[in-house]
Amino acid sequence: MASSYPAPFIISPTPPNTHQTTLILLHGTSTTGPEFASSFLSFPFPQPQPKTNTPITLQQALPNTKFVFPTGKLRKTTVFGGRETNAWFDVSDFGDRTIGEDAMRGGIRESIVYLTGIVEDEVKLLEPKSECDEDGQGRGDRSGRVVLGGFSQGSAMGVMLILSRMLEARGLAADIGGFTGLSGWCPFRLGLEESIFSGILDGDASIEEGYEGRREKAASYLRQLIDIRIDGNEEEGCQGESLLDKKIFLAHGKEDAKMKIEWGAQMRDLLKTLGGDVWWEAYVGLGHWYGEEEMKDLVSFLEGVWGGTAIRE
């Protein structure tokens, strides 16, 4: 399956900076990893803790971070009249994201499997190979050094990956530091909400049902819907640390006409219902693009996840 997806576009730290952290970013509909990288990493914004008035870019703010931009496979996209575009899954209607959800299932299933492999590969690259590097310096604990994120459809795809619990099933939860979703929405939201609270009204569960029960209900619903199965050993992985316990940063423009802000707020509320540690920001004057304050907040979020390891001093 991976062969049908273009190779990820990768930007590594330039010497003397070293690879300490990895940010995996998923593009939106009708674009590609390299195109997303070009616009996102070149977007200037004021320094979060300014020493000068000179704007910086995300790459400058995170000099020790490796940026990984995967690309969705070419697939027929209904909203573009069936034209093939690089997408994580099919989209039928920009005005109502609940239309055509059945057609999303195959693409989401394929992309979850593919992206799980991407995350696993990046985690392995940050694993300590020995107690010390060749220069004799200790590598230290690399847990939480990979962060997943996305813009628009990439944000939606990232949420699907998290809710499926496939990363937990593969034993990767400890390696993921958090998730950031920009201008996104949650596919299958209504079905997920119904699955989370199923049984409460008929007496099978209490109002006080724990977050873990809700998370497993949501994951089981999603995996069944998109036809992804996990074996017994992988189920054990889902019982441990959850990605929903990690830091989550969601951001949205208040003037976003393409991805309505209420869709982003609905995703926020769903994740909070599952016990997600969500930082939500909505920006006045921002449409379906990136904003200066948003980028500053993103850097602050990553600083909270990674500490000073990857952040520009």
UniProtKB/TrEMBL annotation:
Pfam families: Abhydrolase_2
Phospholipase/carboxylesterase/thioesterase domain segment(s): 16-195
A molecular function GO annotation: palmitoyl-(protein) hydrolase activity
One Gene Ontology term, aspect cellular component: cytoplasm
Top-rank lineage group of the source organism: Eukaryota
UniProt cross-references to InterPro entries, sorted A to Z: AB_hydrolase_fold, LYPA1-2/EST-like, PLipase/COase/thioEstase
Family to which this protein belongs: Belongs to the AB hydrolase superfamily. AB hydrolase 2 family.
PANTHER family: LYSOPHOSPHOLIPASE-RELATED, PHOSPHOLIPASE_CARBOXYLESTERASE_THIOESTERASE DOMAIN-CONTAINING PROTEIN
Official protein name in the record: Phospholipase/carboxylesterase/thioesterase domain-containing protein
Organism for this UniProt entry: Venustampulla echinocandica
